[in-house]
């Protein structure tokens, strides 16, 4: 239990998807002009990460890792399907976002009208696939750890995009040098926010 | 019926050279930033990454352009993802076989080429409406524009952060404080935030020379 909480806090602050690994930067920069849309996208990312990563964890554990197919028959102990992981992860992500979109549209139209436009965008958000690949590389011990990593990274990503959107809203009133306006200054501010987040390094529960 | 163009007409060459400066995918179109920054601590992985992305962009554009009339519109995203993922698996396996150290350094970022927005962006915006040959050139050009930024960023980060280029010592050893000199490596350049700031500065310089790129 302690470990799960630890992974959650670490993935929000220390191993933040944006500040430490630059994952999901494209939508981070494109959709951070107002706090409201940024929050919508952030919540959608938490949601999709929280759904896809546990699924990919189970697939990785029972299908892809070298020698894990023994639960079907002992004769398959030598089969190593790990080279297929990219294609399986991305297929799972693309189909789950499609499913989630359809379910949300059917049962929660209000949520759909605020999140709906972001869901297709998320299928190709690097943070989602990156989460699954990090999960595979770091080898989390059980489903609980993987889920807490997923939710933590999602919350960290959401926090970052809401933060930059709030700064950019205020930035409209500042006199930025003309060539730096728009994405230039966004990059530099993100860098400064990253330096601020580095003060969380070494945090442990 | 379209007129047949020569293989290397001026128009085709423009497809290659435009993305390197005026339509640069990273600094102008804001595509593919995700994987660009994390691999720029050292020059060598940055070069390998640039090369891999160029190859995947070029060939995925070419392949999808040649089957563009047979893909049903509704499922085109899935078809694109499958083609790109297959190419990335090839690149990943080749890297593991022939450049194992670099592939370990790049870790998850080889896999993340799949979701690199440059690739999807070029397929959607160009390859699905053009013939295979211009699509290949357009893909390669965009890959090269991406690679150029990667290499510039990695050059500065490795030079100032570790005092080396391609792992070879460039700053003379006798300059270091430990050896009685005056110089010390700037550790900040190795940390992730500095990549963002360096890209910000590159955008600043590029836009000061190209006034039409300035945002309102």
By DSSP (H or I, 4+ residues per run), the number of helices of chain B equals: 9
Element string of chain B (H = helix, E = strand): HHHHHHHHEEH
Strand order of the largest sheet of chain B: 1-2
Provide mean pLDDT of chain A, rounded: 83
Which two chains touch over the largest interface? A-B, 50 and 49 residues
Which band does the percent of strand residues of chain A land in? Answer: under 5%
- The total count of strands of chain A amounts to 0
List the quaternary state of the chains.
Answer: heterodimer
What is the H/E order of chain A? HHHHHHHHH
Amino- and carboxy-terminal Cα gap of chain B? 42 Å
Number of helical regions of chain A = 9
Q: Any idea what the radius of gyration of chain B is? A: 19 Å
What distance separates the N and C termini of chain A? 11 Å
> Uncertain runs of chain B with pLDDT below 50, 5 residues or more?
none
| Helical coverage of chain A, percent range | 55-70%
Q: Which secondary-structure class do the elements of chain A indicate? A: mainly alpha
Main sheet makeup of chain B: 2 strands, antiparallel
Number of strands of chain B: 2
The amount of helix of chain B comes to 55-70%
Give keywords:
heterodimer; A: 205 residues; mainly alpha; B: 216 residues; two-stranded antiparallel ribbon; 9 helices; 2% strand
Can you walk me through this structure?
The complex is a heterodimer of chains A (205) and B (216). The N and C termini of chain A lie close together (11 Å). In chain A, helix 3 (35-64) crosses helix 4, helix 3 runs parallel beside helix 7 (126-138) and helix 4 packs across helix 5. Chain A has helices at 2-14, 25-30, 35-64, 85-107, 109-115, 119-123, 126-138, 143-171, 183-197. By secondary structure, chain A is an all-alpha fold. Chain A contains nine helices and no strands. Chain B is mainly alpha-helical. Chain B is built from nine helices and two strands; from the N terminus they run ααααααααββα. In chain B, helix 1 (10-17) runs parallel beside helix 8 and helix 3 runs antiparallel to helix 8. Chain B starts with 9 loop residues before the first helix and ends in a 7-residue tail after the last helix. The model of chain B has no long low-confidence stretch (mean pLDDT 81). The interface between A and B is large, with 50 and 49 residues.
